[in-house]
Amino acid sequence: MCKMSEFYDQFLWTCYTDCLSMKLDKFAWKGGKKMKTRLTLSVALIVLIIVIMGFGVTFALFTDSAQSSTSALAAGTLVIDSVTPQGAVFSTDIHYSNLAPGDTGSGTLTVINNGSLDALVSISGFVYDTDTNPASLFGGATPLALSETNGIIPISAGGTADFTINYSFPSDAGNSYQGNFGTATINVHAIQAPNSGTVNSQGWTLGTGYGAGGGFTSGPTGGTSAYFVTGSQPYGWAEIRNPNFTGTQLSSLSALSYMTYVSGSAVSQVAPWMILNIDINDDGEWDDLLYFEPQDQGQSVLLNQWQTWDALNGSWWSVDGVAGMTSVNPKAISEYLNVYPNAKIVNSSAGGGVRVAAGFQSVPWNFVGYADNITVGGSFFDFE
Predict the structure, then answer these.
(1) What is the pLDDT averaged over residues 122-137?
(2) Do 302 and 354 belong to one domain?
(3) Domains held by the chain: number
(4) Cα–Cα distance, 363 to 361 (Å, whole number)
(5) Which of 139, 158, 192 is the last residue of a domain?
(6) Same structural domain, 102 and 161
(7) Per residue in 341-353, pLDDT tens?
């Protein structure tokens, strides 16, 4: 956390998050057939004031992970300050009639950035209340499910954006769901958009997919960092790549390390990986991938603080399982070099042979975090 003796500027931006309440009336029976019923979706929007303090004219990149519920206001947190709940702003009812097992549909959630900072906003996940009486629509073997497909949406200061919230009720939902209702919380995440004129990627480029985002901007404790937001979609990914190490002998590396800062994740405390594209037969094409995953290094991935990872002396796994180096049995790079002593880092058609990445999972990471101070051999990258 930054220590600041005085504040020069104060910025406020407001993000509206939703309280999502669903109630499904009892199924009506007539002539031995199940009749369709009515689903009422109530969306109560709650305003959260996010106070962002800047020091001088250099602003750190701040984030907020907000939660809303139907019964109480929920306070989110920032890296260096707090979120102040201000109460419900307005409510709206969206009515879906004739809901029955097998039905799908959608509604719209509007997010408003009422402050002076541009933001990148995403739906970071859904939390279902499954402990209700009557039983919850979100429990059981065939529950009602919510989803979204918007990914990350930039919202300029004073602007708005609409997120589509989809629902799906399985066609094989049984009679046990009669009379049930459900309550869900939609988590909305916002991150300050990059400040123009501050980017120095030092030869690294950004790649994203499946609704994820990222970039190079002011970090959570000052200075410039790479940041990643993978979003709530399956397989969402964000990475930075550097193409300037192609042809570098793996055995010649004197250092290989980087730092990470994890603000939040739905997957139990993971941090961005380091990935190397490897050429084992000197033909200039990549033959294998080596993965360094922080959560496999014998220490916990911590939240809201920087951690340094010594990848050169850590444990890696090979996509090809060379030397028994699998994802469940990572080993030292020396084990790989015993099999392929001339292995080299090489570029691929998609970009650089050295990568730092988050995501790529069938289970959404809902990850927000940063990477910085990357060392590859004698080269150091701090994005300043």
Answers:
(1) 70
(2) yes
(3) 2
(4) 5
(5) 192
(6) yes
(7) 999 999 988 777 9
Can you tell me the mean pLDDT for 247-252? 97
The pair of three-digit structure tokens given for residue 221, joined into one six-digit string = 């404790």
Most confident of 148-162, 308-322, 361-375: 308-322
* Residue 322 dihedral angles phi and psi, to the nearest 5°: -60, 135
Asked if residue 228 and residue 186 are part of one domain, the reply reads no
Residues 135 and 91 in one domain: yes
Are 60 and 176 contained in the same domain?
A: yes
Would 15 be classed as within a structural domain?
A: yes
Q: What is 104-135 written as a DSSP string?
A: EEEEEEEEEB-SSS-EEEEEEEEEEE---SSP
Nearest to 260 by CA among 247, 249, 269: 269
* Identity of residue 71: S
Closest CA to 68 of 230, 192, 184, 231: 184
Element (H, E) at 335: helix 333-339
Q: Which helix (H) or strand (E) holds 209?
A: strand 205-209
Please report which confidence band the pLDDT of residue 14 belongs to, taking 50, 70 and 90 as the band edges: very low
- Structural domain boundaries enclosing 88: 9-192
Place of tokens 């066609």: 171
Label residue 375 left, alpha or beta by phi (over 0 means left) and psi (-120 to 50 means alpha).
Answer: beta
* Residues 93-107: tens digit of each pLDDT: 333 445 578 878 777
Asked whether residue 84 carries a pLDDT value surpassing 60, the answer given is no
Q: Could you tell me the strand order of the sheet in which 145-147 lies?
A: 104-112, 160-168, 145-147
φ and ψ of 153, to 5 deg: -120, 125
Residues 188 and 216 in one domain: no
Report the alpha-carbon distance of residue 278 to residue 289 in Å, rounded.
6
* Phi, psi dihedrals of residue 241, rounded to the nearest 5°: -135, 150
Same domain, yes or no: 45 and 133: yes
Amino acid at 271: A
Q: Is residue 206 part of a domain?
A: no
Count of beta carbons in the 10 Å neighbourhood of residue 33: 7
